[in-house]
UniProtKB/TrEMBL annotation, chain A:
It holds the Pfam family COX1. The keyword Transport applies. Its main location: membrane. It is found in: Cell membrane. It comes from Microvirga puerhi. This is Cbb3-type cytochrome c oxidase subunit I. It comes from the Bacteria.
Automatic annotation (TrEMBL), chain B:
It comes from Microvirga puerhi. Keywords: Cell membrane, Membrane, Transmembrane, Transmembrane helix. It is a multi-pass membrane protein. This is Cytochrome c oxidase subunit 3. Residues 53-229 form the Heme-copper oxidase subunit III family profile domain.
Amino acid sequence: MFGKLSLSAIPLSEPIPLITSFVVILIALGVLILITVKGWWPYLWHDWITSVDHKRIGVMYCLLGVLMLIRGFADAIMMRTQQAIAIDAPGYLPPEHYNQIFTAHGTIMILFGAMPLVLGFMNFLVPLQLGVRDVAFPTFNSVGFWLTASGALLVNVSLFVGEFARTGWLPYPPLSETTYTPGVGVDYYLWAVQISGVGTLITGINIVTTVLKMRCRGMSYLRMPVFCWTALASCLLIVAVFPVLTATLAMLTLDRYLGFHYFTNTAGGNPMMFVNLVWAWGHPEVYILVLPAFGIFSEVFSTFSGKPLFGYRSMVAATLFICIVSLMVWLHHFFTMGAGAAVNTFFGISSSIIAVGTGVKIYNWIFTMYGGRVRFETPMLWSMGFLFTFTIGGLTGVLLAVPPADFMTHNSMFLVAHFHNVIIGGVVFAVFAGLEFWFPKAFGFRLHEGWGKAAFWCAFIGFWVTFAPLYVLGLLGMTRRLQHINIPEWAPWLYVSVAGVGILILGVIAQVVQLVVSIRDREKLRDVTGDPWDGRSLEWATPSPAPFFNFAVMPNVEGEEAYWGIKLRAVETQQLAEEPKYEPIEMPVHSPVGIFTAFFTSVFGFAMIWYIWWLAGVALVAAFAEFVVFAWRDVHEYEVPAEEVARVDRARRAAREALLDRLSRQGALP
Amino acid sequence: MTDLELPASVGAIRRIREDPHRLGHRAHGPREPIVGAGHGETGPAHKRIIVGYGFWIFLLSDIIIFACFFAAFAVQRGSTAGGPSIGEIVDTRRVAWQTAALLLSSYTCSLSFAATNLRDVLRTQIFLLLTGLLGLAFVVMEALEFLELANQGFTPQRSGMLTAFFGLVGCHGLHVTVGGLWLATMMAQVQVKGFRREIIHRLMCFNLFWHALDIVWIGIFTIVYLMATVA
């Protein structure tokens, strides 16, 4: 009846997951009770859960990402403390638990932390920057988000019920085959990643179609903000490589569930085929994450330097260059496979060449600041911290791209330090810069400046204190994923690293305080103009928070930096453009199809993990029925009356006129 | 807030001439930009183009899934582990019938869409039904093939080659089955709702899907079955 599921699946003998589960369940219950008591359910249901508004979905993606970042960070704290304690000692985490932690840390940070954040930014920004009202497929967008959330749910359920994989974040066979890992851990991984992968693919298709087919009038390709270019490149990579992940995990699933021989080490299976396939996804995945990060930095550098981006077209070219070359470097993750000198040379050279594209970008950002009036506000601090951190991470990457050097450092702490150097320095810094930068556009008020700067300095210093020692340890010969350590000479470096984690914790606390303080002081921090940073692209043409239809009248773009042009014209003529004729707007209706789909996939995934076949069947049939019901609906859009559009837009115009007035009184206008 | 009154095409041409920022702008010859094609000058594309375009992107990603299974087959083709080789398990006569059924179903599928374009419900339904029946025949023949192989003990658990064979061919068969489910749903929708705009869009996507499966099958037919008889 319940497959492999029984009471013994609850880890009663292990205090850490048990207490964590207990606390998480208590917090979740508390939140649910609070929502019920306050009567927030109708608001949540109509305005968020069933919303197909790309901005709402983007915000929910970011919220999910931030929660998962904190979860992954908790794992990181445990790993660093364990390694600092377990020097010639067993430490406090038994090996099977420690292995689950490093697996969960990698899986969660990449797939459920960084990915949702990046997807969230793309969802929130691309339609706004392109001057359109939504993405190409709004309802599917909602489905995509909820599938990602469904995957995240399954990963976290593994904490309470059963166990997570102990194989590392990419479950290499033959270790991940049933012969060597019979438990449900790898199955949790497989179904969680598979389900969220489908969600990611949906977003990828959506953004590609939006960018290529749904730009506002006059928005030719070379007038798009660089963030849109990077989102396009990133989503092209999603469309190109997420199917590879889907196929690879499907093969491993067939091996585990039906005894196939794709990756077994018996009967003609080929474990190295998994490693090749999974990195054919895994390396482009790194660029899926970092390209939109580059887009965020491009927007920040140009806005806070008060200059157009230096070398716009070379930036676009570099983005597309990286997009293509990232598909040709995957083998550098396993130079030690023994593919031979010729193959290793090819991939070594391609891995070094891809750094050229990034180098072009670095110089462009530096030259954007050169001669500009740089404002050192929080997003700019994160961006400058990125320039320094990411450049060093990139250089150690080029070192690893040289096969002979890689043979010495393969799977060492040097590698661990390198990829944290680029992912934290690149993606995480970008995410925090972006959250700070676009927060007023989403919520209508800025985040507190002082706490933001405190968070930056803690994160920046904390990062280097944590990871610089890991470079040293790697060169001293320490391999990754060690549950305990027998070499006391390494101890000082491990202690320094733990101290760094302490500084990072301060950074996280500063972020939380920043959010709380900002919400408390929101009236003081209110952004009345809709353009708090003196922005240059179209999202700043909308009021803050942006109305659900984004633009009362679709913009007509007449040059690069669309909004900057409009602003200059208003300043020159000392008045806004004439009031347009307002017309009714068609908007897509809200739909619960996303959350229902996610419910069924969660049930299906859980049933498959625990071999509850009947339940899996029921969930599949129910999902199909739900799609038919959804396909039967007749009303897809509703009309926003012209008066409502006019009301919202006149308020926006009044705010802008007041700003213009104030500027001219101050004598800031020519 | 800008010059909305101007016709888009006139405005676009004027802007191209006068725009000092027209970096990288490449005019498409003397033709005026087509409204609704989504080329940038004229604003978002029509819904039909967006839907079709998005579905094409999905199909490309689906083809990449097949590419992985093809790659696995290429790697494991010789990994027989003492079991049968690919040449010993292939029945070219049945595969010829399968191929005929599937290619014919693609033809009837196109006929159904031609009828849809004429807004002819009856013919659309007849040809969709024919498409479905031919697809069903294909799937049944494939199931028989799998059953016969299993009866001889040639299951995917036997060897890496059989794993890759069943995986690739089965993945395609699964797609055809799901396509059949979709087709049945579409027939019901056409019957109940007639040719509403979104239903025509869905029929268009279904057509694309069905033809894509045909293309993949031609790959399987060649690389798995025909090449088996050569080597």
